[in-house]
Structures are given as structure tokens and as C-alpha cells.
Amino acid sequence: MKAAVLTEFGVPTYADHADPEPAPGMEVIDVAAATLNAVDIIIAAGTHYLSPQSLPTVSGIEGTGTTQDGRRVYFCPPVPPYGSMAQQALVPTASLVELPDGLDFSTAATLGNAGLAALMPLTHGGRMKDGESVVILGGTGVVGRLAVQAATLLGAGSITVVGRDESALDATRELGATATVAVGDKSVDELSSAIRHASSGADVVVDYTWGTVALAALRAGNRLVRLVQVGDRAGAEVTLPAQLLRSLGATVVGFMPLHYGPDATAQAYRTLTEWAVAGKITVEYENVPLAEVASAWKRAPLTRHKLILVP
Questions:
Q1: In this predicted model, what pLDDT tens digit does every residue of 13-41 receive, in sequence order?
Q2: Rounded distance, CA 1 to CA 57, Å?
Q3: Last residue of a domain, which of 257, 275, 295?
């Protein structure tokens, strides 16, 4: 079969790879769509704890497709060395989630890793309650824009998006953001003041950035503010004063879907697909032929929509 094959750490190439074969508890999936995620790029670089221990291997942690008996499914993760960026993947049967009628494969794929990183930090990590103030740090990308929509549908009282691109920030208002804050060259104190003014104080912070932006958001928090740490694009480390945490009763939670178990992630995914079928959320993606995986790899960090590799 054709696949995105990683023969050395870096960028996979479009090449031939052995076909997967069925095994007990596993199924061969005819792949229809495979997302290109930031984590795929890190894994392929050899710097992630999920990076392969041996090569060659096929890249891709998730996708959608059809089982050999015709069921339309979302899958994550495939069984190495058979990643999702291929004509076929090998997947544990227990990890399959069937797709509802009316949902196309590319939308369904986009709602996987990206959708779960948008919805579950609110529902599971931040335990958001109806009417609470939500602040989303780095909310102008694929995941952040989905998070804005999820917070709206969950009944947030206000949604403040913090980011660097002012035009992209403005666009989030169409999705439900009630206020935006541009980071610019603001000091931590200035940024904190701007976030507090825009949000009237944060109850839940969904953090895709970390760094001093996260510190500013915590300082703008209400009592018992919960910050859910999802990504670290603005820096891997930050100093959090002990007195700040104690004075607010603040909670900082590290988020990954796997911490909540397969049942919780499957249910969250079903919620996302139900919203999509009902037309309640907007999903932005671009289909790219699998043969163009190398160029897609370079483009992905620069786009604000999801790139979907199609065999």
C-alpha cells in the first residue's frame, strides 16, 4: 500500500509499505481521511514520548475510514507501525467509534484530536458550569476556534479569546467570542488587566500557550479559577507565585484526553459529531492528497485550518 513512511526522524515520504493484516482484537481500516496534527510533527521529529522506537513506520495518530464489514468509523490510535496516513491502518477494535449518518470523513477526522482538545478541557479539565466566564489563550487556531464554539454551546456566560493576530481574534467573534485581547507587547501586568477587564475575571482558563500569557490569565482569575494546561506554544516554563495560587484557590490541571479514559473520550467525540451533524459548529479543513505529505508537513504550522491527508 501507499503511505507516509518515516524512515528517519523528520518528515515522512510518500512510499510503499507492507499492508496490515487482521489480528485478534484488531481490525484493518480502509482509511478515508487522516489528520495532520502538531503532535504528529513532534512525534516524527523523535522528540515526543510517543516517538517510534524503531523505523520505518507510518505516521499518523488518528483518522476515519471504513471497516472491512462496511462500518464508518473514527479511530485513534492505530497499531504501530501502521499509522493513519496510509491507504490502510491496523486499529484495536475497542478504540473504534462509529460515525453518525450525514457526517463526512474529513469533518469527522478534524473533530478527533482537535475536537477533544477543545471540548474536554472545558467539561473534564475545567469542570465548566453554566454561566461561567471562560478565557481561551491562543484561541485563534483550529483547536481554539473549536473551543470557542464548544464553550458557547455549553452555556458559558462570557468567552474571551487571547491571541497575537488581531484579525484572527476578530474572526472568533463570529463563532461566539464575546471579547478579545491582543497580546501585543503588553507586560504581564498590562495583559492581566486587559484580560480581567474583558472577561470580568476568569473562572475557567483553557491554555494553549503557557508562558507568561498563562501567568497573566491566572492573575485575572476569579476565586477558585481553574486553568487547564493544553499546549505550550508561548514557552515551556513559567514561574507561578505560591501566594497567587493560594490567594485565589487556583487550580492548574494538565490536560490530555487519555487521562479521562476511553469511555469519556468516546462520549465527548460523539457529542462533537452530533453538534456537527446538527450544524451547530463550524469545522475548517483542507483535503490534501496523501502523495503531497511532505509539502503538507511544511504548511501545517502556518495554517489556521486542519490539513487532512486523503489516500
A1: 999 999 999 999 999 999 999 999 999 99
A2: 13
A3: 257
